[in-house]
Amino acid sequence: MTTATVARASISVRGVSKSFEIPREAPFLALKEASIEVEPGEFLALVGPSGCGKSTLLRMIAGLLKPTEGEIWVGDRQITRPQEDFSIVFQSPRLLPWKTVLENVMLPLALGRGKKVPKAEAKARAQELLELVQLEGFGGRFPSELSGGMQQRVSIARSLVNSANVLLMDEPFGALDAFTRERLNEELLRIWSATGRTIIFVTHDMDEAVFLADRVAVMGKEPGRIVDVVDIPLARPRNAESRTSEEFFGSVRRLRQTLSTGVGVDAGGAGAHRAE
Ligand SMILES: Nc1ncnc2c1ncn2[C@@H]1O[C@H](COP(=O)(O)OP(=O)(O)OP(=O)(O)O)[C@@H](O)[C@H]1O
User: Fold this and answer.
1) Same domain, 67 and 182
2) Domain closes at, from 105, 136, 163
3) Which of 163, 181, 214 is the last residue of a domain?
4) Looking at residue 271, what is its pLDDT?
5) Are 160 and 87 in contact (CB under 8 A)?
6) How far is CA 221 from CA 92, 164, 218, 260, in A?
7) Residue whose CA is at the smallest distance from ligand 1 atom 31
8) How many domains, the chain?
9) Which residue has the higher pLDDT, 248 or 91?
10) Sheet order of strands, 77-78 included
11) Which of 54, 144, 195, 220 lies most in the core, judged by the most C-beta atoms within 10 Å?
12) Of 53, 9, 100, residue with least CA distance to 223
C-alpha cells in the first residue's frame, strides 16, 4: 500500500463566485462569494442540495474551471490551471476503454512528469490498490467487462496510486451499494490517516459526510453558497461503531437542520460556525 506521508498543503478559497454564460439568457450565478480555508491534512466534506454548486466549487479548486471572481490558493501558489499534485475522482469512472483495469490504475504513474516510477513498482502498487477495492483478479479485464460500481472502484484505486497531496472526490461512492460504500468509507479514512492527504469530498449523504469529515461545509442554493461550516466532534479512528454514537446522530441532526433552514445552527455554541 502506498502509505508514505506526503507534503502537506493548505487550500484557501477567497471570495469565489462563478457565473456561467448561457446563450440568449442572463449569466447564471452558480456560486456566490464562497470562502473557506482547508487545513493541511484536513478532511472536508461539501454537502448540499442538487445544483447548489458543489461540483462547480470542486472543479474550481481542481483548476478545471476559472472563478468569475475571487481566488483559490494552495500554499503560496494561486490555482489557475490543473495541479499535478491533485487527484480527482469524478461521479462517473472515466476510464480509458482501450486499456486494461491494471493499466488504467497505473496511468497516473505513467503520466507523472519528472517522477518516474519503475514499471514493476507501478504494477505492484496498482495491484495492491485493486486488492484494496476488492478487484484483485480483474486487472486484466477491460472496463466494459465490469459493472458500473466496479468501474468506479477502479477509478478510486487510480486516484490513490500516486502520492498526490490533495484528493478531490465528487460523490465517488454515490453509485455503490451501501455495504461497499461503508467499507470504502473506512478504507478511505485509513488511507487518509496513513498518508496525510488533504481531502475535499462532495456528497449528498449526510451520514457519509459526518462519518468521514473533520468539518462539513453546508451549501445552499439560489444562489449556490456556503451557508455554514460545521465541526464534527466524532472521535477518531472511526469505525462501524462510530455510526451508532450520540455524537454521530447529533452531527447528522445539526446538518439536517442547517440544510432545511438554510442558515447556520448554533446549538449551544460548540461545533458550528459561519463560513468565513
Ligand atoms: N457549464 C455550465 N453551464 C451552465 N450552467 C452550469 C454549468 N455547470 C453547472 N451549471 C449550473 O450551476 C449550478 C451548480 O451546478 P453543480 O454541478 O455545481 O451543482 P451540484 O451541487 O454539484 O449538483 P449535484 O449534487 O446535482 O451534482 C447548476 O444549476 C447547474 O445547472
Assistant:
1) yes
2) 163
3) 163
4) 41
5) yes
6) 23, 31, 10, 12
7) 51
8) 2
9) 248
10) 28-38, 11-20, 69-74, 77-78
11) 54
12) 53
The answer to whether 62 and 83 have CB atoms below 8 angstroms apart is yes
- Across the chain, what does the average pLDDT equal? 88
Give residue 264's pLDDT band: very low, low, confident or very high (50, 70, 90): low
Would you say the CB of residue 20 lies under 6 angstroms from ligand 1?
yes
- Cβ-contact 161, 108 below 8 angstroms: yes
Entry pTM: 0.88
- Smallest CA separation from ligand 1 atom 29, residue: 51
Q: Give, using CA atoms, the residue closest to atom 20 of ligand 1.
A: 51
Q: What is the pLDDT of residues 101-140, one digit of tens each?
A: 999 999 988 876 556 788 899 999 999 999 988 899 999 9
> 6, 195 in Cβ contact below 8 A?
yes
- Same domain? 157 vs 172: no
249 Cβ closer than 6 Å to some ligand 1 atom: no
DSSP H helix total and E strand total for the chain: 7, 11
Residue 108 Cβ < 6 Å to ligand 1: no
123: domain range?
93-163
Instruction: Give the pLDDT confidence score for residue 52 in this predicted structure.
Output: 94
Q: For residue 202, give the ligand 1 atom closest to its CA.
A: 22
Tens of pLDDT along 206-252?
999 999 999 999 999 989 999 999 999 999 999 999 999 999 999 99
- Does the predicted interface ipTM exceed a cut of 0.95? yes
49 shares its domain with 79: yes
